[in-house]
Design brief:
Layout: H1 2-30, H2 37-50, E1 54-57, E2 78-79, E3 85-93, E4 97-106, E5 114-117, E6 120-123, E7 125-134, E8 137-145, E9 152-159, E10 162-169, H3 176-188, E11 190-193
Antiparallel strand pairs: 1-11, 2-3, 3-4, 4-10, 5-6, 7-8, 8-9, 9-10
Length: 197
C-alpha cells in the first residue's frame, strides 16, 4: 500500500524533472553561438573558396568585429594554393598598443605547419602549454608563434582532417592572462560555417 501511495509522488517528481530538462535544453539551444548575420555571407564565401568549413566568431575583443574586408580587416582573406588561409583583424593606435587576432586553417592537414627561420624551417606554433576543453573542441595552447602570428598566443584544434588556429597578439593594452581569457571566450563563441558549393 505504501508503495502505491508513493507512486503518484514519484510520477510528479519525474514529470517535474522532465520539464526542467526541456527548459534547460531550450535555453542551451538559444545560447548557441551565432556568427553575426551581417558577416555570415563573407565567412560562407571563404568556406566555399577553401572547400572546408570555417569558424566565424560571435564575439571579438574590442574594438574588432568579424567583418571580412571591413575597417579592421583591410586585406580580406589570404588563401594559399593549398587552400590554407589567414584572416587577420587589427586595431593599432600609436602609444596605445594594438589588438590583433588571426584565424587560420590548413585543409587536409593536421600537423603543425612549418615556417622559414633563416635557412631552416621550424614549427610555426611551438612551446605547447597543455590543452583545454572549450565546448566540443580540445584545444592546444601554444605560446610561441611565427609569421603573421609572431608574439601571439595561439589556440589550435583539429576537425575532420583539418587543423584550425586562432591567435591573439600579446601587446599593450593586453596582458598574457587577458589574451588567454579572450581566446577562451572567442573559441567558445565560434560558429561552424559549412561550404555550400
Amino acid at each position: 500500500m505504501r508503495a502505491l501511495l508513493a507512486l503518484p509522488l514519484l510520477v510528479l517528481v519525474l514529470a517535474g524533472c522532465s520539464g526542467d530538462d526541456k527548459a534547460e535544453g531550450s535555453a542551451a539551444a538559444r545560447a548557441r553561438p551565432a556568427c553575426p548575420a551581417a558577416y555570415k555571407a563573407e565567412w560562407r564565401r571563404l568556406a566555399n573558396r577553401v572547400h572546408v568549413p570555417v569558424y566565424c566568431p560571435s564575439w571579438m575583443p574590442s574594438p574588432l568585429d568579424a567583418d571580412i574586408g571591413g575597417q579592421w580587416n583591410s586585406d580580406g582573406p589570404i588563401v594559399d594554393k593549398d587552400r590554407s588561409y589567414l584572416v587577420g583583424f587589427l586595431w593599432h593606435e600609436a602609444g596605445a598598443g594594438d589588438v590583433h587576432v588571426n584565424f587560420r586553417a590548413y585543409p587536409g592537414r593536421t600537423a603543425v605547419p612549418r615556417c622559414k627561420d633563416g635557412k631552416q624551417t621550424v614549427p610555426c606554433f611551438s612551446d605547447a602549454r597543455g590543452t583545454k576543453r572549450i565546448g566540443d573542441r580540445k584545444v592546444t595552447v601554444y605560446t610561441v608563434s611565427r609569421d603573421a602570428d609572431q608574439w601571439h598566443v595561439s589556440f589550435l584544434w583539429r576537425r575532420n582532417g583539418t587543423l584550425y588556429a586562432v591567435s591573439e597578439h600579446v601587446a599593450p593594452p593586453l596582458t598574457f592572462g587577458k589574451v588567454v581569457s579572450n581566446l577562451e571566450r572567442l573559441v567558445g563563441g565560434l560558429e561552424l560555417i559549412k561550404p555550400t558549393t
